[in-house]
Design brief:
Order of helices and strands: HH
Strand content: under 5%
Number of helices: 2
Number of strands: 0
Structural class: mainly alpha
Shape: flat
Helix content: 25-40%
Length: 105
């Protein structure tokens, strides 16, 4: 029973993997990588508001408020963990010897 259950799941897994490769080469899924290049670039007409509403001013949509533009130079905190730049002695391992020939490789 256990053998047949393992065999069933193995066949099921193999069939699933084979099905994925057939979908990749078929026309089921279209390549949409360059869809943005196929669209024409058009300038949209200006926004029209109804006559009974006031026309909003769209020009200052995003204004950056005045503020400090100069910042002092100085010490910035480091993001390296403590002891990252310490010299840690690493022992050099001898070369492996080939057990069949008895020579070093």
């Amino acid at each position: 029973m256990n053998y047949f259950l393992r065999l069933f799941f193995l066949v099921l897994l193999g069939g699933s993997l084979c099905a994925c490769s057939t979908l990749k080469n078929s026309q089921t899924f279209r390549n949409r990588t360059f869809d943005y290049e196929r669209q024409a670039v058009v300038n949209l007409p200006p926004l029209k508001t109804p006559s009974d509403l006031p026309t909003p001013d769209f020009s200052p949509a995003l204004q950056i408020p005045p503020g400090q533009n100069d910042y002092p130079t100085g010490h910035f905190p480091t993001m390296t963990p403590p002891g990252f730049n310490d010299n840690i002695p690493i022992p050099v391992l001898p070369p492996k010897s080939n057990a069949l020939t008895g020579s070093n490789s």
